[in-house]
Amino acid sequence: MGLLSNPKTRQKLMNVILRYNNKLCFVCYVVGLCWFLALAYTPFNAKTYFSENALLPGLVKSNAHSDSGAGNYLRNLKDELRLSKETRKQQSIPSSWLEAQLRQLGLDTYVQNFTFKYPVGILKGHAYQGQNVYGILRAPKTASTEAIVLTAPFRPGGSPRDSTSAGIALMLHLAKSFRRHTYWAKDIIFLITEHEEIGIQAWLNAYHHSHNDYVLAGELQGRSGSLQAALCLEIAHEEITRFNIKLEGLNGQLPNLDLVNTAMQLCRDQGMQPTLQKQTDYWDPKSYEGFERALKTMLLMMWNMAHGTPTGNHGLFHQYNVEAVTLQSVRIKNSRRYFSFSQMSSVVEGIFRSLNNLLERFHQSFFFYLLPATNRYVSIGLYMPPFAVLALPVLFKAVALWISVSLDASSQASEETETEGKEKPSQAEGDPTEQTPHAEDAQEPGVTLMSVFPTCVLCLGFGLSAHQAPYYFIEAARGFGMTPSEGLALGAVSVHLVAMAAPWLLQRKATEEGDSGGPNWQLLKSVSLLAFGIVLAAISSLNIAMSFFLAVVWVPVILLVRPTHSRVVNLVQFLLLLLVSPLGLVYIGSVVNEVVVEKVTDAAVLLPRAWESTQAALLMSLINNNLFANWTFSLVSLVIFPTWLMFWSLLWTKPL
Amino acid sequence: MSGSTKMKLFLSYLRFSFICVILLNCYASGQEMETMEQFFKSGHTNNWAVLVDTSRFWFNYRHVANVLSIYRSVKRLGIPDSQIILMIADDMACNPRNPRPATVFNNAHQHINVYGDDVEVDYRGYEVTVENFIRVLTGRLPPSTPRSKRLLTDDRSNVLVYMTGHGGDGFLKFQDAEEISNVELADAFQQMWQKRRYHEVFYMIDTCQAESMHQKFYSPNILAVASSRIGEDSLSHHNDNTLGVYIIDRYTYYALEFLEGVSPDSKKTMGQFLQACPRRQCISTVTVRTDLFQRDPDKVLITDFFGSVRKVELSNNYIQLDNIPLTIFPSQTCDGDACEKDKGNEKRIQRGPRMQYADPFPVDSYIKGVSVSDNSRH
Amino acid sequence: MAYPMLITVSAGIILRLWLHASTLGEWLSDKNEVSTPLTSWKRVTEGLALYKAGVSPYSGDIFHEMPLMLRFLHYINSLWGPAIYIVFVFTDFVTAIVLERIAKHCGRHLLVEQKKNVKTFSTDAQKILVKSSDLRYTRLQVVAIYLFNPYSVITCLAKSTAIFNNLAIALTILYTLKGKRSKACLSLAVASYISMYPIMLVVPTAIFIARQEVPEKTWTSSLTYGSIMQTLLCSCSALSFLLYYSYCLEGSWDFISSTYGFILSVPDLTPNIGIFWYFFTEMFEHFRLFFLCVFQINVFIYTVPLSIKLRDHPVFLMYTLITIMAIFKSYPSYADASLYLALLPLWTHTFSHMRNSFIVACMFIACSVLAPVQWYLWIYAGSANANFYFAITLVYATAQILLLTDLIFAFLRREYDLVHGLKPQVNGQPAQVVLS
């Protein structure tokens, strides 16, 4: 408070910010960025550890290790699938076979039916059918108040993704093995879902009695207690090289680190080196190559978090406060060692014995973290300071601009009074800390603040329309015989164009009318920066990866933009802003994705392909928004787009 | 009924059975004096044990196993259930996670089920609280408390207090909900001393930073041992991979190993017991506090605390007892001299008849060491 | 003048009606920042159901409205049914009109006072004198802020009964400004009856009316005390009447413990934007009573020093007390903030002396955005914890306190400048006024 109430220190602080804000901003940005990236380096992060005592990972001898059990199931399942392929064209989940298998084991087995349709316009509201099969192994000695879930998605033969038959076979084998023992303190639900995330969403919705307009989940015939944790299996082969552990969930939410550690630990106990993002840990983490590998792993994880789409079925559990991860099999040709069903079942069984030991929900360890390697983590306490430093320039600049606007206002006022002759100029100059009659009480640019108001409202209005418009675009696109994704992409472009044109039109109109007013650019920028700062702060606690990438890309651009008379500078600014516009970012993201993941190098192929994946991304974000409550689309259209527009309209204001 | 009156009844019963009971103030002659020294110095008449497990939850299986193992040992060495207060905060035997229901093991491969057929748990589950523990020690229990839940000690009682659980510097957690501080504990012992509730106390604790728990003791006649120093953790010994939990703590494990070799007539001393777990085995430093204890631990029999060895001598010799009226033995025959006197004055109190007990079982082979062959009379 | 006002008011009403048509209101009525256990419409519904069933709503632990409020709400509910939101919109409309009147009378009062004291002012204080032209927009600003402040909009949407309380407080201010004792006392009694805390407003009301009634020269005379006593008595008897009437309706005093008792003893620690919940969740049970007293006294204690310091400015005193209530009461919500924020433009003439308005504004906005985010992370996602949310409520409280202290400082500083001139000089040198 002393700092705020003492006019002299306050004045000093203001002077420092005013004079050095550009340098400060630059230094903060560079330091923040480097610091954040450096967190991937082993000496700057921490070793993972088990925070929850109850887990007791890996203390038990496996009771389920057997190759033949799961192998038999796999053979039978394949036979069954071949049979159904001959009889039916569209391959769907062999629900009756699965039901029979689970029922034979003596589990409470049920089939859930669900239908789903895509949101407005896409595929003309056609409804699809699906089925989930699940069996509940009741805890022999306790009431069914808690449950843990073992789930595997069913993928038909033609699916572009890896088959999961081996995972289903393993699950059936484990069900059989688990059934024989009395030590289960929680119910175990064995769940096989259809249609990837949609199936699991339907099941979870029905389990928790929540409603979704597009995924119409049938009533569950049987249920168990509150779900404590879930493990998702995506195993494609009988013999695998290792497990890849996927953990990024919906909206960048992560499972409790203890669960991830448990999975890692159990894999290691079987002599299997687990991976994250399919990146193995480098043997010498302190070397430069080690840092590179860790950084790549961490950035890939952040990338997966940033777009908010779950990387597997586990991601949908998180929204119901159920911790979940996916074990994905990785098979490398000519691998030194392969792991059979026996070891895989030991891993899964070990995880379940640990989960069985839990006394309460996962709550001990971290929920906010980044993983640069399988045994290292960066906690929220470590990554927040560099992120804050990275985002600090936004605040600095906003404050500096605010101060300079208020100083301008008060100096104008003092000039007026000086011309009236009531003031002796020498007096004002005499005291450097008191440049103006009320320098200590920086005058509030209250009236001018109102001038920014229409711009803000306009931008928000465009945001709202960007959020609502896609539905109309898709409808319209159908009229022109375009696919929904094309319609959506064109719609996004046109929304951008219209929104971008609006400030220009307003400005032209204003100049025609000879109104020199319009918003003060400094004030507008200050307000925009503040809005962006708050947006960053809010997103950072929800999804650090998204706000990090946003800050990295936006901060330098938005700090630079200001209205000028120079045409060249203006053009550069236009281009920069266009690049960081939401659509531009999606396109850049697609390009990066094509280059990094798909390894496309030819520019002639790359750019159109990237455009195609941009279209797909837009459509997917809209679908995910409606089907799974993925916030990315809403967030971008309602928050980020308006903020961007505010900076855009800054370019059309009158330079001083 | 207090402990001492009970003891008196017991003694008089022995008297009337013509068995020579030799206790405490027994006069022995020269040579035997030295070997008897430790024996007579002990000065207690009864033994009690308070065994406390303060932690619950499945992953603390080892604490329950610890305390049940000690319980088993002291019971084997002769302290009856009526003189053991057993506090166990959780029921491991019936935990649904237990692959071997209704058992608690203290060793891998499940050799010994310490949760045998005759375990009497006096305070269980949520009854194990700091308040109850201190009330038991100090005897400030509500009048409705049954005798089995009371520590009915007197100033001739040797008390073994064993505690295990999760601790820190200066405290021991009770059930994750509360904790007892070392000061509280020290004050409780002082109260016991002032209320003449013990003769000697052997305090044993197996927890992290256990040393801190006996640091604040200030009452006399307490011998204390703790499994670890301040700043050290007490570690578990090993896990059982069919149960999937750690089975027992290191210090208790080695202490038990020592106790296994002790029989009621054992000559092993407390001094030896305190050396039971060297650092290389325990991985923590076992700390001992002897400054409050009057005797030399090396001369104190381990059974002074862990057993309930009555200093009993069975003898086949005749014993002359005075002041016993013959009238209560009307059917007895008498030899010449005495009969004559009886004839003279029937109401005179007569010397008892010479009688002999048949040797019911070969006791001498059981009690070899404690051979006090004296015929002192009462 | 009239047209902008008309447009503002109708836009405000249309906005509310339009938003009421959406599902937003239902969602908001569960937000803990908007509806507290005292004001939640859900609880009112529960209470009404019990009332209809012939069971005393006070026998349970759900309902905390006063008996007369219960009957009033029952009446309007049975009259309007599902369209009851119109009543809430209408109440907001009335409040806006009352606030407009307040702005008008307050401005007039300000000019009158200034004219009265102009002799004592320094010569170079000319610049900071209030001119009637400065007050041109105040009325519009007050109404616009009240009607478009997101805080008051969401309060109305959530059907929080706090808006009746706000109306009662606004009426108290208005009648006080008009100098109408009986009406002022009656509305004061109603406000205190509904939410207890406004009883402290009796001090500024009494002072204001006394200053109006008694000629300036005889302010220390017994006439002043008479006037003050009269106001006190009037308010107290009105309040007593309301309470007694409630007693007659209810047939017992049970309602006191579930209304005033509920306010004072804070048994419901559902998180809200106040400071009570976290503190009393963390508290050991045996300290609870002590700190309860401390916290409740804390709300009222400021009345004494502020009344002494601001005895010449009862209107400002009243404003300060309303703000303090909103900050420190046991179950605050955004509704309380919406009232004092709307009246903020009354003090436009002191704004030039305010120094932290930028920070305060940023804090307010940041809190409003971050509070639901942290709430989501804590309650729904389960990944954050209570401390995250508490941090936000703490910042919110700090922002409000900062705003209040800043305003008081600005007000006093202006008063100082009026008397001592804009260029204070010490020994002929220009000096700076430092608040320490």
Automatic annotation (TrEMBL), chain A:
Signal peptide (from-to): none
Residues covered by region (Disordered): 413-441
UniProt entry keywords in alphabetical sequence: Disulfide bond, Endoplasmic reticulum, Glycoprotein, Membrane, Transmembrane, Transmembrane helix
TM stretches of this protein: 526-559, 571-592, 628-651
Gene3D superfamilies in alphabetical order: Zn peptidases
A GO BP entry: attachment of GPI anchor to protein
Subcellular location(s) per record: Endoplasmic reticulum membrane
Keyword Amino-acid biosynthesis: no
Superkingdom of source: Eukaryota
Family annotation (InterPro entries): Gaa1 (IPR007246)
Pfam families for the chain: Gaa1
Membrane topology: Multi-pass membrane protein
Subunit annotation: Heteropentamer. Part of the GPI-anchor transamidase complex, consisting of PIGK, PIGT, PIGS, PIGU and GAA1. Interacts with PIGK.
Role played: Component of the glycosylphosphatidylinositol-anchor (GPI-anchor) transamidase (GPI-T) complex that catalyzes the formation of the linkage between a proprotein and a GPI-anchor and participates in GPI anchored protein biosynthesis. Binds GPI-anchor.
Protein name from the UniProt record: GPI-anchor transamidase component GPAA1
Natural source organism: Ridgeia piscesae
UniProtKB/TrEMBL annotation, chain B:
GO molecular function, one term: GPI-anchor transamidase activity
Record pathway: Glycolipid biosynthesis; glycosylphosphatidylinositol-anchor biosynthesis
Region feature Disordered, mapped onto this chain: 340-360
Gene3D superfamilies: 3.40.50.1460
InterPro entries attached to this UniProt entry: GPI_transamidase (IPR028361), Peptidase_C13 (IPR001096)
Signal peptide: 1-30
Keyword NAD: no
Keywords assigned by UniProt, alphabetized: GPI-anchor biosynthesis, Signal
GO cellular component, one term: GPI-anchor transamidase complex
Biased amino acid composition, Basic and acidic residues: 340-349
GO biological process: attachment of GPI anchor to protein; GPI anchor biosynthetic process; proteolysis
Active site: H166, C208
Similarity section: Belongs to the peptidase C13 family.
The name this protein goes by in its record: GPI-anchor transamidase
Species whose genome carries this gene: Ridgeia piscesae (Tubeworm)
UniProtKB/TrEMBL annotation, chain C:
Locations listed in the record: Endoplasmic reticulum membrane
Main location (coarse class): endoplasmic reticulum
Protein name: Phosphatidylinositol glycan anchor biosynthesis class U protein
Signal peptide: 1-25
GO CC list: GPI-anchor transamidase complex
Keyword list, A-Z: Endoplasmic reticulum, GPI-anchor biosynthesis, Membrane, Signal, Transmembrane, Transmembrane helix
Native source organism of the sequence: Ridgeia piscesae
Record keyword Cytoplasm present: no
